[in-house]
Amino acid sequence: MNLEDVIVETLKKEVVPAIGCTEPVAVALACAKARELLNTKEATDIHVSVSPNIYKNGLAVGVPPTDEVGLYIAAALGFIGGESKKGLQLLESIEKEEIELAKELLESGKLRLDIKDTREKVYIEVKLNTNEGFSRVIIKGKHNQFVYLERQGEVVENLQENATEAIDRGESIYNLKISTIIESIEKTPHQRIAFMLEGLSMNEEVAMSGLTKKVGLGVGYTLHQNMKRGILSYDLMNYAKVLTAAASDARMSGLKLPVMSSNGSGNNGLTAILPIVAYKRIFDVPEEKLAKALAMSHMMNSYIKHYIGRLSALCGCGVAAGTGAGVAIVWLMGGKMDEIEGVIKNVLGDISGMICDGAKVGCALKLSTSASAAVQAALLAIDHQIIPAGNGIIAETAEDTIKNLKRLSYEGMDKADEVILKVMQKSQRIRSA
């Protein structure tokens, strides 16, 4: 398979629609599959175990189409009415009656959820017991990747041993130089990546819903009102901030609209795409260039997350998707590889310290900051203002800078992730008391 084919295949796998935050949705997906294996809606016990990162990201985020937040309601909805064939869009068809049944299930005490002691970033295990028998489901590695299915003691599917090896084979692209990937995208015929434009229109619609009325934290809506008042200007940086924040406001509040995700994250998808939407609204850009810019943004997001992990103590919206958006913008501005590498260094030298403390309405602020950092990095890089090697974690090359970020994520932030989770759990207990 040549590089162009690998890039197109990667984009098709990693850039997919999702309704709701991908962590609770993945839990719902696992519960739906466990129920489907037994073809029942009656349970005596449902035990859900998730990795610390899944727990952290699903603790306080809105779950469509309810007014509830968190993994418990997501798990119950998945069991009651989810259809696993719909993947990360399985909550789309949930009706009001099913929401009530899900709440009754939670009140019954039959559903338990705990944190599994695992080093895996993405891990969800569901053990379902009924009067007729039991089933067991494991999602690992990716939010929609089933690696183990068991029904009545019979193993239906077991990909656990091969899952990591298969992922590593598929991600050999991330050992390439970034310039090689960018150059391949530049040469790719438009018709092969025109599907990228679907995410542009999809995420733009979500952003517009966050500007129509104040939802979530109202970051995008408030900034937009200040643009209308003349306090803020209608420039590229502010437009990117407003659109990206408004979409996050809507999504984190539990809006029942599909979002084009990137590398397993809806918020990463918003950050990777919406600054490009802002650029398109201000400047005349042909669809072919837009599609290629979007492909670069998503590939850069995937490239960095390959090194820091799909879920991390670092905010992927900033260090990965924000970097991707910056790369796309500088390329649209006519930047070459020196400027593209410069954007990567500028973003990572700017916001690499942004932590991930779970998905919640406050993420709109982080997405706003990430979009702003992307535009700022692009404007500086196109004028050849680039953080020099030896400044903090910045290395001679973009690739080595990303490897330094990996060390920061795994060696430096491992303990920080534990502390963040403990703080969040304590806050949750105080609010529940």
Automatic annotation (TrEMBL):
It comes from the Bacteria. One of its GO terms (molecular function) is L-cysteine desulfhydrase activity. Pfam families: SDH_alpha. Transmembrane segments: none annotated. This is UPF0597 protein SAMN05446037_103036. Residues 86-422 form the Serine dehydratase-like alpha subunit domain. Belongs to the UPF0597 family. GO terms for biological process: L-cysteine catabolic process to pyruvate.
